[in-house]
Amino acid sequence: VVAQLFGLHWNTVRRAVKDVDDYGLQNRDLDNVLYIGIDEISRKRGHVYHTQVYDLIQKRLLWSGEDRTSQTLEAFRQFWTYTYPAWAKKYLDQWFWWATHSRLKPLRGFAWMIRRHQHDILNYFKIRIDNAAVEALNNKAKVISHRAYGYRTAETFTLVLLHGLGKLPVPELTHKSL
What we know:
The chain is of the alpha+beta class. It has helices at 2-6, 10-27, 70-79, 85-100, 105-116, 118-122, 132-147, 154-165, and strands at residues 36-44, 48-55, 60-65. The longest helix has 18 residues, at 10-27.
């Protein structure tokens, strides 16, 4: 729609959105992330899933992508089945090793973010939080996906989700409207 309104090629609009998202990712503040929610949404037919990691307090998207091994993420999900904090910590330490030795750069970055917030994550075993906020954010992600009747590539899908749900800082414009 934007490309048609301004007589631009879709790739020009996509590049502009990518530049703004890249700026926002480099300049966002993750220091106050206390509670995260993880879930998957379907990107297209044929069981193509996109993993979403949300900040549950600020209701924003922290990470989104398909580039992951299902085994490693499934292993991370097992963490939430523990009932004792000490056993959960031991398991999280083991998962961290697996994830940081992965060949997938986004997964390694995600693992380091988990490590930085490990103490707060382990608080889950003291204060259990339900999945309602994650499901609400997933519904917003699906609305964004349906606006364009889906996206061909995982990269573009991630780009649009971060732009719409990431609450990323945006660069100051060099040109101002009159």
